[in-house]
Amino acid sequence: MDIESISKKEHVEKERLKEEAEDYYIEKSKELRLKDLTRFKKYFPEPSENMKKDIAFAHKDIDKIATAIVSKKPWAVVSGLNPSGPLHFGHKTIFDELLWLQKHGAEIFIPLTNDESYIVDKTKTLAESRKIAYESVMPSIIAMGFDPEKTHIFVDSDYPDIYNVAMQLSKQLKISKIRSLFGFKDSDNVGSLFYRGAVQVSQILLPQYIEFNGPIITLIPIGIDQHPYILLARDIAKKNDMLPPAELIMKFLPGLLGAGGKMSASIKGSSIFLTDDIKEAKDKIKKAYTGGIMSSKYQKELGGVPEVCSIFLLQKYHFLNQEEAEELNIKCRSGLVLCSECKKCTNVFVENYLKDHKEKFEKAKTEIPKFLLKKRITSILE
Q1: Where do the domains of the chain lie, and which CATH numbers do they carry?
Q2: Which terminus of the chain, N or C, has fewer Cβ atoms within 10 Å?
Q3: Is the distance from CB of 41 to CB of 47 less than 8 angstroms?
């Protein structure tokens, strides 16, 4: 097969992958009966960049959040993280959204689920995941610019009140329900059953308790695969005179290796970590999967497929505004910009960010106590 035929075949395959990815989110949203953000973006004066770029793309009950923002009523956001390794740019997508939500009045709760890391074998010991939480994850979060007065971070194993809440709510959780939502097998350990069933629901519903001025309107930004947790939490909230949480669905940032996978710490080479050294990050960018084809001659004729390009998407998610992303998309599709040029730009963006983050990361280590959740939940014990 000649180069022209190979290039055309490669282009067709990448267009197919683009359609497949787009169809996944459309069909999944219909299946889960989620609504798009068209109405919110139309009437809310300043939607987030993630909303403008269709990265945050679907929701349930976000109109309640809009009402709280406009009326200046208290509201909260909960977004947990599994501390099994350093933060990467996939995580940063969610935290960028949290910063925007905080700017509009949200009280932010960030559970660092080191118990989950241990239970599902992402770390060998509970101590290991705890160390990662304090020495790597927490400083990276703080370095992004959160307000310590409105940000409450806790490590599950160091905040035992979360287990009291889980114990209280667990009586209303049936094993049959948990199995139907999460598909547990007989070989799964009991810890994973209790964590996914009770502990994660407790984290989601934490702002509903009187100690945090609850019950209050709460938003959970998540990936579409985490929707079952919200269904479970909404069901339990209704049984306890709490306000069912709203959800904002975010698209995954694909990994650098392509093939439809998301950026993940567990897949070597798929992620750029916020604590990577610059040479390491550039090496990953050099090897990254793109939407281009093997022949630059035919790429200029056929164009690239930016929607499946890990380099374009990294720029779109983190370094370009809506207009800039649309302009780059057009240039790529028309063959005016080739992959080598895009990678050079990405190198500059990433290098500048990593340098800045490194400076803020070191300072953030000293600020951890300001962000730790210390308030006890005593109402359920009285």
Answers
A1: 27-254 (3.40.50.620)
A2: C
A3: yes
